[in-house]
Design a protein that fits this description.
Length: 298
Amino acid sequence: VKHAATFAAARADLRGVVGLVPTMGFLHEGHLSLLDAARSACDTVVMSLFVNPLQFDRDDDLRRYPRDLERDLGLAEGAGVDVVFAPAVETMYPAQPLTRVTVATLTDHFEGPHRPGHFDGVATVVAKLFAGLRPDRAFFGRKDAQQLAVVRRMAADLSFPIDVVGAPIVREPDGLALSSRNVFLDPEQRTAALALNRGLAAAADAAEQGARQAADLVEPVTTELAAFPLLEPEYVALASQDTVEPIETLDRPAFLAVAAWAGPTRLIDNVHLDAAGGGFVADRGVRLDHPSVLYQEG
Ligand code: AMP
């Protein structure tokens, strides 16, 4: 795998149909599934690895974000990545950027108000990656449902000729959605964290059995969360996939999303409810049948 630190060095090795997988590193199987999807659909795969200061709303989160370049290069190599673009902060932002990309309305709810500036940071850095690397396709996880919608809309609004592809959530064997931040959970927090997926799974069953009211889908999630006093929920809500507006009735492609704190670690998870055959089918994601590489000794 080639390790490039500038846009020009990364671009020099891109041939044919180019697939981009943006990441903040400390790779897990969620990232690896995006790399596999890119590998299958593209001639060249470029993975960006950049812990983007612009998208962090809390300094402590940025400071403690896990980082291990050597580990990530090894995993990227194993996944058949051609180029890892890992720029320094000074390369990505030689000066304080005066130009910011803001995607209105799609950021009004859910993660937006809880993380001031976050989506401007995401939209700005993804626009820079799109402009600087010029991929044909870019791959994003459904784990960050609102981010996926924001990136799709940004690419359309700014006429980037790039296919934005969404991929299912990858989960640990017990159902916890993979996140680089899972390494911070202590055993008690980790047990509590399972409530998010349990609640969403119950809601997914309800939706497939015909439940259509948001309140009836939210209820199983809030009930599961309430069993663990150490969890501090921020929101549980049904949203439209395209506009990311709260909806009262499941009558279009939607996702049921949850955010909660487990101690100092913020967790998000969701289940997408996709239209199929006149009804809705839940995307429950994919469960690993082995412990995640997150917990492998380096
Ligand atoms: P991150 O490194 O956390 O910024 O994530 C990089 C990309 O991987 C984003 O498109 C995320 O949505 C995606 N991703 C993160 N966790 C998962 C997961 N558990 N399953 C699928 N995709 C994920």
